[in-house]
Automatic annotation (TrEMBL):
<keyword id="KW-0540">Nuclease</keyword>
<comment type="function">
    <text>Hydrolyzes DNA under acidic conditions. Does not require divalent cations for activity. Participates in the degradation of nuclear DNA during lens cell differentiation.</text>
</comment>
<feature type="signal peptide">
    <location>
        <begin position="1"/>
        <end position="22"/>
    </location>
</feature>
<dbReference type="GO" id="GO:0005764">
    <property type="term" value="C:lysosome"/>
</dbReference>
<protein>
    <recommendedName>
        <fullName>Deoxyribonuclease-2-beta</fullName>
        <ecNumber>3.1.22.1</ecNumber>
    </recommendedName>
</protein>
<dbReference type="GO" id="GO:0004531">
    <property type="term" value="F:deoxyribonuclease II activity"/>
</dbReference>
<keyword id="KW-0378">Hydrolase</keyword>
<dbReference type="GO" id="GO:0006309">
    <property type="term" value="P:apoptotic DNA fragmentation"/>
</dbReference>
<dbReference type="Pfam" id="PF03265">
    <property type="entry name" value="DNase_II"/>
</dbReference>
<dbReference type="InterPro" id="IPR004947">
    <property type="entry name" value="DNase_II"/>
</dbReference>
<keyword id="KW-0732">Signal</keyword>
<keyword id="KW-0325">Glycoprotein</keyword>
<keyword id="KW-0458">Lysosome</keyword>
<keyword id="KW-0255">Endonuclease</keyword>
<comment type="similarity">
    <text>Belongs to the DNase II family.</text>
</comment>
Amino acid sequence: MTANPLRTALILLSFALSGVLGTATISCKSDEGEAVDWFIFYKLPKRPDNESAESGLEYLYLDSTMRSWRKSYHLINSNESIVGRTLEQLYEAYPSKHNDTAYLIYNDGVPKSTKYNRKYGHTKGLLVWNRVQGFWLIHSVPGFPPVPKDGYSYPSSGKRNGQSGICITFKYSQYEIIDSQLLVSQPNIYSCSIPNTFHWELIHMPQLCAKSRSLKIPGRHLTVLQSAQGLNFLHFAKSSSYTDDIFTAWMAQQLKTHLLAETWQRKIHSLSSNCSLPYHVYNIKGLKTPHQPYFSSHSDHSKWCVSIKGSKNQWTCIGDLNRDPHQVFRGGGFICTKNRYIYQSFYRLVDFYEPCG
């Protein structure tokens, strides 16, 4: 009996669709555990006048359903925190070893280690995805998160200073772009699983996962990414071969705006505010929130910048590099958006900044 080609094709299509439609939808989660297009967390620094166990674990959050920061009822080390709920998808998928789910975790400060691997980028984050969609969490917390078999926890070393991160939900079509951006930023990958089904489209992540030494890495690359619900982002990625200050030489000039930059400010490890080019970069020195009236950049390990007030282009960028003379030789990057609620929320955190000269 001769097979009907049309019938065979329809059967194959049916099986393919059943596989996709039966796949769990992976996304960033809200503080209440609902799927959201994106969220941002800002873990507040430990207050020197507060010795309670909660101090250093409290956080603000903002997601795609909101217009301004809220303080969470949860602590960042809780499974019910906004990050804990999102990473639960990784920890649930890991034991089952699904061939339709991939993950990749990177940090120059590996969990349970006091050493930092400076031959890789100063990058921190993780991705979890399937052939429908997934999320990318970019953050500033050394030694985080734990490998999947250990489940969720938050490092005690991350309590003292402020920390920040952004999670964005992406359709699978965006992962080829992300694949190339990760190559440029040279992440130190310490846990990953990328089944063969993804290797046709994603060229670099499997090689990075395997610690391949033969990769040709560009100096820098800028690209557009679009979230699952259509919010546009610009992603700047630099490698160790691009040795200018990413804020001054590239981001401010590309975005055509003066920037206020918040990065970890240590006395001998910081670059001064810079007004040498058409668009200037000023270091934020003091921050404020309704929940913590003042804290200094010396106690804030987060990395972000916003356009100065009055700029025609109102950008907010969140990433993983400091304005530090040594970090111009490290890979890393920033993801930027013109979303007005993100901009307004971050700008309100600025108390004062350092002028040039």
